[in-house]
Amino acid sequence: MFKDIVEKNKSEVIKNGRIKDLIKALDNEEELKKLLFCEKELNHIEHPGKKRVECVKNKEAKYAEEDEERIIKCLFYKNKENTIKHCENCEYKNIHNLEGKYFISDYQVPSYYESKGIGRIDLVISDGILEYATEIKAYKKEKAKTNEESILRMIAEILTYTYGFPKDKYKPAIAFFENTPQEIEWITRDELLNELITKANISVFLFKEVENKTHERFIIEKLK
């Protein structure tokens, strides 16, 4: 699949070639489908058999220190649309809280098409009106290994996972945290990547940490 091959070669020439391929494919739905899925056999299931794994709501939950799945669940349960009571007995209750107008309305949403290698939509960010289907990269602290996947990879993933949905259901988006490789790439992005983001109508969000002495809190800032 396209999302899996975009980082197999780190050459700038190869990367730019793949960005150009994706930009070109955006002009034609069939060409885009062919590029994203590499002509894999696809199935659409109205009611996927595999449901997301709900948070277990207690401190016995076993997670890596900065595990992406835990971060996603915390971001969902700890926002103004969801009760904090869900988190009262969890050892992570004081981290990954959200402030501001944006909140997480859903997480681990099944993709429209189901096939080997097709993941789920990490998060749905909402302002109460629009719903942004979002690919997010978790941040790591201290000695943990940082996720270094590129913005191109993130775009390829969210275009893959949202392909097939009605155009007005979700706006495709990517999100990352402050002081991560993804934020650095965003700040230093070139015109070609800008062209892709604009043509694919990708929204970009940054999770910014808000200073708080007792709780780790974030605000979601829309960059584009």
The total of helices stands at: 7
Radius of gyration: 18 Å
How do the strands of the widest beta sheet line up side by side? 2-9-8-7-6-5-3
Share of β-strand residues: 15-25%
N-to-C SSE series? Answer: HHHEHEEEEEHEHHEE
Largest sheet entry:
7 strands, mixed
* Secondary-structure-derived class: alpha/beta
Helix percent band: 25-40%
What's the number of extended β-strand segments? 9
Average pLDDT level: 81
Tertiary shape: globular
Task: Tell me about this structure.
The protein is globular, with a radius of gyration of 18 Å. It has a seven-stranded mixed beta sheet with strand order 2-9-8-7-6-5-3, sandwiched between helices. Strand 8 and strand 9 (217-222) form a beta hairpin. Helices cover 29% and strands 22% of the residues. The protein is built from seven helices and nine strands. The chain is an alpha/beta fold and 224 residues long. The two termini are 27 Å apart.
Fill in the keyword field for this structure.
224 residues, 7 helices, two-stranded antiparallel sheet, alpha/beta, 9 strands
Give a short overview:
The protein contains 7 helices and 9 strands; from the N terminus they run αααβαβββββαβααββ. With 224 residues, it is α/β, with parallel strands linked by helices.
